[in-house]
Amino acid sequence: MSDNYKKAMPVPGPESVPFWEGAKNHQLMAQKCLRCHHHWFPPSSVCTSCGSRDIEWVVLSGKGTVFSFVVFHRLYHKGWDGEIPYVVGVIELKEGARMLSNIIGVPVENVKCDMPVEVVFDDVTEKLTLPKFKPV
Ligand SMILES: [Zn+2]
């Protein structure tokens, strides 16, 4: 944990507060529709599948697979200095929601689509925890 975190900081909007509070408690949260049981991310005020407002926040398993990814070889933000190359992936969670995050704990050349991954929580500051994913 560090208070001199140099990367861009997410700014939670009203709809994403439960996600960030969950992350601080090391729980991966997403919304679920009570009508059609669809899970989705990022947060919204209605179900992204059927449009219902009958929705709730649930804790996800944190398990999924790599749907897609890119390897960053260029420094686009000085906060990443010394950490390139790094991987940004779209994770397809077991519950169906897709989430964008870093894939860590594996050499970048070994990241593959459909690779099983699970969430890990990076407490980057006292107020911010980032869910990231590592191979199972
Ligand atoms: Zn729905």
In words, what does this structure look like?
- The chain has 136 residues and is mainly beta.
- It has a single domain, classed as OB fold (Dihydrolipoamide Acetyltransferase, E2P).
- The chain contains one helix and eight strands, in the order H-E-E-E-E-E-E-E-E.
- It has one helix at 17-24, and strands spanning 29-33, 39-40, 55-59, 63-72, 86-93, 98-103, 116-123, 129-135.
- The protein has a five-stranded antiparallel sheet with strand order 6-5-4-7-8. A three-stranded antiparallel sheet has the order 2-1-3.
- It is globular and about 45 Å long.
- Zinc ion (ZN) binds at residues 33, 35-36, 38, 47, 49-50, 52.
Topology:
Elements: H1 17-24, E1 29-33, E2 39-40, E3 55-59, E4 63-72, E5 86-93, E6 98-103, E7 116-123, E8 129-135
Antiparallel strand pairs: 1-2, 1-3, 4-5, 4-7, 5-6, 7-8
The structure holds zinc ion (ZN).
Zinc ion binds at residues 33, 35-36, 38, 47, 49-50, 52.
Please summarize the sheet with the most strands: 5 strands, antiparallel
CATH class: Mainly Beta
The number of helical runs is 1
Q: Would you identify the CATH architecture? A: Beta Barrel
Content of β-strand:
35-45%
Order of helices and strands: HEEEEEEEE
Count of distinct structural domains: 1
CATH topology: OB fold (Dihydrolipoamide Acetyltransferase, E2P)
Mean pLDDT: 95
Task: Tell me the radius of gyration.
Answer: 15 Å
How would you describe this structure in keywords?
three-stranded antiparallel β-sheet; binds zinc ion; mainly beta; globular; 136 residues; 8 strands; 1 helix; OB fold (Dihydrolipoamide Acetyltransferase, E2P); five-stranded antiparallel β-sheet
